[in-house]
Amino acid sequence: MSDIIQLLPESVANQIAAGEVVQRPASAVKELMENAIDAGANKIQLILKDAGKVLIQVIDNGCGMSVSDARMCFERHATSKVRKAEDLFAIRTMGFRGEAMASIAAIAQVEMKTRRYEDELGTLIEIEGATITKQEPVATPEGTSISIKNLFFNTPARRNFLKSNPAEMRHIIDEFQRVSLANPAISFSLHHDGMEIFRLPSSALKQRIVHLFGNNYNERLIPVEEDTTIINLKGFIGKPQFAKKTRGEQFFFVNNRFIKDAYLNHALNKAYEDLLSDDNFPFYVLFIDIDPAKIDVNVHPTKTEIKYLDEKSIYAIIHSAVKRSLGRFNISPTIDFDQETAFSGMISPKSLDEIIPPSISFNPDFNPFEDKALADKSFSEEKGYDADKGFSGFRNTGGREQQPVSKNWGSLYEISKEKPVEQVAMELPGNGPDDKYAPIQKQLMQLHNKYIISQIKSGLMLIDQQAAHERILYERFSVNLEDRKGASQQSLFPQTVTLSPNDYELAKSLLDDIKSLGFEVREFGKNTLVIEGIPVDLGSNQINETQLFEHLIEGFKNSQQELKLDKRDALARSMAKNSAIKSGVVLGQQEMNMLIEQLFACKAPNFSISGRPVIQTMSLTEIDRKFDK
């Protein structure tokens, strides 16, 4: 029997390596930008066409390469950063494997121009599918310019797995943000299809964060700094009230290398445990500086995972440092991060004289022994109480933030006339002729402004008002997305919404579906959209269109990440959650009747869009049993 084990051809080996190193255009962007940083550049430009599928060009003003280095950099496992095995445990550079350029050259058409400062002429090299097709001297500025054209041109199966341009662009922006956050002293720019997406001047870390994520982040940041013998920790965390439903804006860097680490992330989230609910995630950009000998960065092809010698101590340091910074913020919410003291925002002794003590109002003519009916009438007149409408203005919301009575809430619904409430209720799963759970009109009560109680023939029924409204809106928006017939109500004053570049790309990819919900939206300049109309289902309530749209995008990302839903279902789910009435909102009799009637007209009225029960019933027998009858 002949031998069957053979060495792979170099071209095949390079394509296999490319499968690990270059998974999509964003992978190539990361490798090229990190090479530019290692070359000592202080200005890096990224130019893209068709989200990197047609062109990825990175131009830097770094040290450049000699003729022989320019050719050698495309050889597999050729690197300037490692000479012996011990060097793997003293790595301070971004790249070190020597696989990136060889892998990229194997699956793309590459053109590189490079020149050192001391050379009069630079070098031009053109490569196609790992084969050098041209090498010649060329006049070029100091530094290196690399163009990657037609990624995966010779592996069409790999190219078919690429997503849409907006989706691939979001991955590129993610990588661009990570690299630029780690290097605020370097000037970066990003252009896509002739449009400038980012222009980031050299700055301090706080200004870099603001330039990347928006001016409103200037007031959201809390500094963190801790120096120990194990690690040095510095960076910024976000104030709890600005936490989001998605994890997207969370960045850990170890020796300026972006990493993903669930263990360290848990340490930070635990510091917020008394300030945030489980489904909210804080913003953070934190840098860990550690002795390279105490970590191993050579454990993952993309170099985003690291092993530590003493991870428990690092966990404890991060947790305590973040918790202490949050404590300082709670002492002084208006803390100035440029000052050392945390007490600049506290009340001064002089201002104590200006404090007005609380006063108590009372009726000196009140007589508790007067006729009860007269007393009730006097109380109702004084407080503005109406037997049908309840208190005017604000009502007690059971400890939650008080909400004004919604005068136009009923306009959110069009009363369904297809079936009477009693008939629909009979058709609910588990209900039959002998178990009549139909609610009786005009016998509704709101419990703690959260649940609706309705008497039924066999006992009582409890309905979660927020979950019920979410179910109603979800089914309505799903139909609108399917039929593309969502009605819109024109806004009197169009609103502009400025998104982060990543969210803007996402919104552009969803525009057709967003319009199907009933929004009238158009693009307006850099990362900005104009909202000219909102879904008619939202009625004439006083709605902040900008905030609603931002929450819609954030909710969509959360639904897709956590539940892996398809695009339209995630959009309908996000819209329903952000548009529904919340617990704590006071409802009138008509509003509660409308809510119940429309709930029973839904396809799945018993369950919320999160899978939790919407309706609970209690029979008279159960109630009697509680009273030992």
Can you tell me about this structure?
With 629 residues, the chain is α+β, with helices and mostly antiparallel strands. It has three domains: 10-202, 2-Layer Sandwich (Heat Shock Protein 90); 206-331, Ribosomal Protein S5, domain 2 (2-Layer Sandwich); 386-629, formyl-coa transferase, domain 3, CATH 3.30.1540.20. Helix content is 33%, strand content 21%. The protein contains 17 helices and 24 strands. Strands 5-4-3-6-2-1-7-8 form an eight-stranded mixed sheet. Helix 8 (262-271) runs parallel beside helix 9, helix 12 (465-483) packs across helix 13 and helix 12 (465-483) crosses helix 16. The longest helix has 21 residues, at 311-331. The chain starts with 9 loop residues before the first helix and ends with a helix. The model is unreliable at 331-355, 371-424 and 427-436 (pLDDT under 50).
Which word captures the global form? elongated
Count of helices? 17
CATH-assigned fold name of the largest domain: formyl-coa transferase, domain 3
Beginning-to-end CA distance, first to last residue: 89 Å
User: Helix share of residues?
Assistant: 25-40%
Whole-number mean pLDDT = 78
Oligomer: single chain
Per CATH, the architecture of the largest domain is: 2-Layer Sandwich
CATH level-1 class of the largest domain: Alpha Beta
Structural class by secondary-structure content: alpha+beta
* Rg computed from alpha carbons, rounded to a whole number of angstroms: 31 Å
In brief, what are we looking at here?
The protein has 629 residues and is α+β, with helices and mostly antiparallel strands.
